[in-house]
């Protein structure tokens, strides 16, 4: 292992951070992942510090493991996950922490096709029946995206997911003054990305900030 392997992440711009993620995803799609920063030396290097270059706010779906699909390792990404990438106070606080304390230059809202949380919300909107327990809370958060999609003539689940990702990026910047200020000052960008399960491809569908 070379000394460069355990050096701190360089300070990246939002555009450079997105390019790094995009390059990692391309390797994953091609089946040529590098699996970087996953050895014992890297683990020891990060014991008392971290400097991730991106925060990924993604769906909790088991098929959407951010570090794998973007070919990342230990210390590369700060990851926050909820079903349907629903914004609650804990998720918002985690995202604000990544910007204020870790100075992460890029927030990625990551959705995917065949999303169960979006599908459940569509079913509830169509039937008028809410699911039990705290699943209802997820559906209530996603319902505005489904209604907006319907108003725009969108009926299928996967295109509704794109709408929900776009709506989530907008709500994130709108709800957090800390994040919106970082975007306005060029320190951070917020982008929406959708992932296709069969192909493994991640594509940007929305964004706030300079890229």
TrEMBL record:
Entry's family note: Belongs to the beta-class carbonic anhydrase family.
Annotated PROSITE patterns: PROK_CO2_ANHYDRASE_1
UniProt keyword list: Lyase, Zinc
Alphabetical list of InterPro entries matching this protein: Carbonic_anhydrase, Carbonic_anhydrase_CS, Carbonic_anhydrase_sf
Pfam families per record: Pro_CA
Catalytic reaction list: hydrogencarbonate + H(+) = CO2 + H2O
Protein name: carbonic anhydrase
General function of this protein: Catalyzes the reversible hydration of carbon dioxide to form bicarbonate.
UniProt EC number: 4.2.1.1
UniProt keyword Magnesium present: no
Keyword Cytoplasm included in the entry's annotation: no
């Amino acid at each position: 292992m070379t000394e460069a392997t355990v050096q701190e992440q360089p300070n990246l711009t939002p555009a450079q951070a997105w390019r790094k993620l995009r390059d990692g995803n391309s390797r994953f799609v091609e089946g040529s992942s590098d699996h970087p920063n996953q050895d014992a030396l890297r683990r020891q290097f990060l014991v008392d510090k971290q400097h991730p270059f991106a925060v990924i706010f993604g769906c909790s779906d088991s098929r959407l493991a951010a570090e794998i699909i973007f070919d990342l390792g230990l210390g590369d990404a700060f990851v926050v996950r909820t079903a349907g990438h629903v914004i609650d106070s804990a998720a918002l606080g985690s995202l604000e922490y990544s910007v204020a304390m870790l100075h992460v230059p890029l927030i990625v809202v990551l959705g995917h096709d065949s999303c169960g949380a979006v599908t459940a919300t569509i079913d509830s909107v169509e039937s008028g029946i809410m699911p039990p327990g705290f699943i209802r809370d997820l559906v209530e958060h996603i319902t505005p995206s489904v209604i907006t999609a319907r108003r725009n003539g969108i009926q299928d689940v996967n295109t509704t997911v794109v709408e929900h990702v776009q709506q989530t990026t907008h709500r994130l910047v709108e709800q957090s003054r800390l994040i919106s200020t970082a975007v306005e000052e060029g320190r951070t960008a917020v982008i929406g990305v959708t992932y296709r399960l069969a192909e493994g491809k991640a594509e940007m569908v929305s964004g706030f900030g300079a890229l």
